[in-house]
Design brief:
Blueprint lengths: L1 H13 L19 H5 L13 H14 L4 H29 L6 H9 L1 H8 L3 H23 L2 H17 L1 H21 L3 H31 L15 H7 L4 H5 L23 H7 L1 H4 L7 H18 L7 H10 L13 H27 L7 H13 L1 H4 L14 H11 L7 E3 L15 E3 L5 H6 L4 E4 L9 E2 L2 E2 L1 H12 L4 E7 L2 E6 L2
């Protein structure tokens, strides 16, 4: 009871900033003005991907109709929702697999506070985060179905997979690797293969049908839209982009440390922290702690293979055997979605959330039986918790950035919003080189972004305002991954030289140019 309470305290301490006032807008997570939300529809928007219905409907109901501030709405439907689903989902998987084994609460700690997910939520990738939150429940419900073969488990499994697809189909694609691997392990170890294959096929058809029904609004909206590439952007499939995004190595993935930890500057990696190597040692020692007649043997074997598969895929085209990932990228349907291979960390996390608690439980049992002292049972777990505190200390000390630093919406962006809403004539805005998390957009003033553009492009898109954003997070005007004030000034100067635009306003460091008619 004391140890589980300490785990809950650690989780709260890591995410404590999400319970303070202010918006969490940062990185990929935007700030939504009320005027933006008023333009949302209850019908699927073909311009949005799978997140559209959930994103727009929850915002419209809570902000526009119930008059709940966006700062509360974003927490309730995204950040707190992530915490709740992750907690129960990881606990569910640990109960399904570990059952009567002790210390299953460690699964929740590892799942919610590992460096991978802290970098994901810190960067504002909340669609990925919520799909990640469903991953243990999807895998656990599938395993339940295969073992119990009940219609109820089949429906639950299909529904969980459907909700995961709604938040990010890429994570569901990754879960397909885990599910296929589990079936493969059972086919090797079980004698009743025909029944197993029948259950697996039933799962595929049922889950596909349920997933389509739940997600049919946005799927059909995208299917009948002019843009048929609603899942895959053809520009993703290049050797250069694949090599650029494969910045994590085998040792990083094996040690369950995100390459950008802890600064979360994209592409900036650090020397491997050797203390993280304790994690794979603990995880894979479970294979040596198994007894010959132990019922959980096939599950431990599966999660060990799952971890190794995740490690191999998470490194991308890095050695060893990086050409295999490159081949998969260009030849396996849908794999082009994974030019950023770090998403396969999900498989490693799932593996370690089961293997590490199992290993610690077995070590505790061995110590207890050898010394015949019950109080020493908690010693390995207590030491692990102290070790985990040491590993994630930047999060505990409040050193993480992004959504872990609540703040107020900058007054400059509020002033710009007020300026734009006075213009009721349809005219997209062009943000150079990129939008900010606080960039205002609406149905009247949709926001585009481009580092380079032409007069023809501006005329075709009916752009009226070209805007240089204030880089409040230091993430837009970068040189060698550091904020560059000179680059910001050069951007303004280069725009001022364009003959068909004129500088008309500035709000703080936000500069607004108007296209001449």
């Amino acid at each position: 009871m004391v140890l589980s309470s300490f785990v809950l305290f650690l989780i709260f301490l890591v995410y404590r900033s999400w319970f303070f006032p202010g918006t969490l807008a940062s990185g990929d997570w935007p700030y939504l003005f009320k005027e933006t939300i008023q333009g949302f529809s209850f019908l699927p928007d073909p311009a949005n991907l799978w997140l559209g219905p959930y994103y727009q409907i929850t915002s419209k109901i809570f902000v526009e109709y119930l008059h709940i501030p966006w700062e509360i709405t974003e927490r309730a439907w995204w950040f707190w929702m992530f915490l709740a689903i992750s907690f129960f989902s990881s606990l569910f998987l640990s109960k399904v697999i570990l059952k009567k084994y002790k210390f299953t609460f460690l699964s929740v700690l590892i799942f919610l506070t590992n460096t991978y997910i802290l970098m994901i939520v810190g960067g504002g990738q909340m669609g990925v985060a919520l799909a990640y939150a469903f991953a243990p429940a999807v895998l656990g419900s599938f395993i339940n179905y295969l073992n119990k073969n009940s219609c109820r488990n089949l429906i639950i499994s299909g529904m969980l997979l459907a909700f995961q697809i709604m938040f990010d189909p890429r994570i569901s694609y990754i879960m397909g690797f885990g599910i296929a691997l589990y079936v493969f392990v059972l086919l090797i170890l079980n004698k009743n293969r025909r029944q197993l294959i029948f259950r697996f096929i039933s799962f595929l058809f049922a889950s596909a049908a349920i997933a389509f029904l739940i997600n049919s609004p946005w799927i059909m909206a995208r299917f009948f839209s002019e843009n048929k590439n609603f899942l895959i952007d053809p520009s993703l499939g290049s050797v250069g982009s694949l090599s650029f995004f494969s910045f994590g190595s085998f040792s990083y993935a094996f040690s369950l440390i995100h390459p950008n930890w802890p600064e979360n500057i994209f592409g900036k990696t650090y020397f491997l922290k050797p203390e993280f190597l304790i994690l794979p040692i603990l995880a894979f020692s479970s294979l040596f702690l198994l007894k010959k007649d132990e019922k959980i043997k096939k599950e431990i074997l599966f999660f060990s293979l799952l971890g190794l598969l995740g490690v191999f895929l998470s490194k991308g085209v890095q050695e060893p055997f990086g050409q295999i990932y490159s081949w998969m990228f260009f030849h396996i349907p849908g794999f082009v979605l994974f030019r950023d291979p770090t998403k396969f960390y999900v498989l490693i996390v799932l593996s370690y959330t089961i293997l590490i608690p199992f290993s610690l439980g077995k070590i505790s049992e061995n110590i207890s039986s050898r010394f015949n002292v019950k109080t020493v049972v908690i010693l390995p777990v207590s030491l692990f918790l102290l070790f985990w505190v040491f590993l994630v200390r930047p999060a505990l000390l409040g050193e993480l950035s992004g959504t872990f630093k609540p703040h107020q919406a900058p007054s400059a962006y509020i002033s710009l919003k007020n300026f734009l809403i006075k213009d009721i004539v349809y005219s997209p805005t062009l943000w150079v080189p990129n939008k900010s998390s606080f960039s205002f957009h609406s149905s009247v003033h949709p926001a585009l972004e481009a580092a380079t553009f032409s007069e023809k492009f501006v005329k075709e898109k009916k752009i009226k305002y070209i805007i240089v954003p204030e880089d409040t997070g230091g993430k837009i005007f970068l040189t060698d991954r550091k904020y560059d004030e000179q680059l910001y000034k050069k951007t303004i100067i280069s725009l001022a030289k364009i003959s068909y635009v004129v500088r008309i306003a500035e709000f703080g460091k936000i500069i607004v140019f108007q296209v001449r008619e």
